[in-house]
Design goal:
single chain; 2 domains; rod-shaped; nine-stranded mixed beta sheet; Rossmann fold; alpha/beta; about 45% helix
Length: about 600
Amino acid sequence: MRNGTTPANEPHRSARAARSHGVQRMPTGIPGFDQLLGGGLPRERITLLVGGPGSGKTLFALQTLVNGVRTFQERAIFVAFEERSEQVVADSATLGWNLEKLRERDLFLLDAHLPESVVLGGEFDLGGLLSALEAKVRETGARRIVFDGIDILLGTLGNPLAERREIFRLGEWIRRRRLSGIVTCKTDVDGALPRPHDAHLPYLADCVITLQQHASASALLRRMRVTKCRGVAHSGSEVPFTITQSGLQVSTCPPVVRSSSAATAKVSTGVPRLDAMFGGGYYRGSSILISGSPGTAKSTLAASFAESAARRGEKTLYVSLDETGAEITRNMLSVGIDLAPHVRSGQLTISSLHKADRSAEEHVAAISSIIVASKVRCLVIDPASALSVENGTAMAEQAVTQLIAIAKALDITMLMTSLVVDPNIEASVSGVSTLSDTWIHVSYSVLAGERNRAFTIIKARGMHHSNQVRELVLSSRGVEITDVYLAGGEVLMGTMRWQKELAEQSERVEAARKLMHSQEEAELAVAEARARLASLQLELAAREAALNSVKSEQTDQQQRLAKRESDMRRLRTADTLALRRSAARRASRGEASE
């Protein structure tokens, strides 16, 4: 029998994977568990499940058989020493396993309740039961078997030696038939085996798994520990698990593939100004924390990121722990963020997980399932701090840490919001601020009777960022981060900033008016000076003309005088010459007479 979503060759791949590390593995198909042991439980060996009432032993064992039939085509037998088979079928109906159909051919349920006479007499051995089971194994070809409630059987014997004998016989029978066996046994409230005689059980098993549960605050917490597993490497640390509508689910982190180079690609924050501040946005695959008081726009920043991711075609999961998807979609419209088209297209999934309905571990399991099923690229948890309300801070921190590890392993960009109760303390309630790659804090600034939103980037690994406080403004156009505005060494916001800007604008207008007036006065003075200069130039020209006229007249006069003097000199010279000539003539005449 195959699951419709499982490829035909899936069992063969599982078998090859189980043999690849020496000890063969039997996949349980329980989400998250097989990863703990590198493929599943040891095949053809005995696994002991111990735990208190309601810890999930029977569910673990039965789920392993159901998955073996459906996914890995391995028929199975379930032997019940405590519950009757009809009760087991009825209890599993809510899980959707349909045991009625499986038991027709692939899963045999055997009631092994002891008669009251045997219980009172203490005379019993497994010989007859094992003979009947051996026939059933040959008939069905079963490869897996569960003995549920072995402590019920051992309690009827009343003899430590008889107990050892029967449990040893059971173990040898399982190994000889090359079956993969699971045996369950109850413990007391402290996790110890209730009877000293049962202490030998873990030594006879090849693998021992302890299931525990305890109440913390208002949540029921479940833990699982692999305390022993021969031939298989395991950590032995406690691992949280949950019981969901489809069965057990173990909260394990996928292995992180370490790359020799860090991611440099960036994704938009959804706020253009913030993209510019980060040089393009958040690093892909990073974790972002937005902390702040109620109403400081944490969810709006988260929705901006989710809307931007969905718009560029990346599968995005928005997990809300205090609002429904319809409320989120409606509320974001007031700031210009329309999520509805992306929800309809399937790019954006809004999942509302009420914080009081589940434990933190159950939330992690539910979110992990959606991430894997939807192949999510971007994840929003709003607010992650809500996990601490019902589960305590330590558990919430562990849950968020696990989500961060899962996101890192799958290269998912994860944005979380966290409520800060005390506005004077910039800290995350869940205590994961140190694990986040980027931490943004939004708060209120109260001044002059007005409350405004303040935006600060506390840290951004690997990115340049401003350490200044900026105002965050919400409008119908979305989120806007304003420029830093300083006055007197103080950042002003809101009305104070508006008033200061108006005052500065008035001062600038008045200064401009005064400059204009001064300019006009200067221009008038220049015009007057130019007019005076023109007048002086005209006067200068007139005076220069008069001077030139005087000079010309003086020259003419000098020329006339010189001519007159020349004429007189000429005249005088002419008389002298005439006398001289006359004297010469007389002289010549006198000489001649002599």
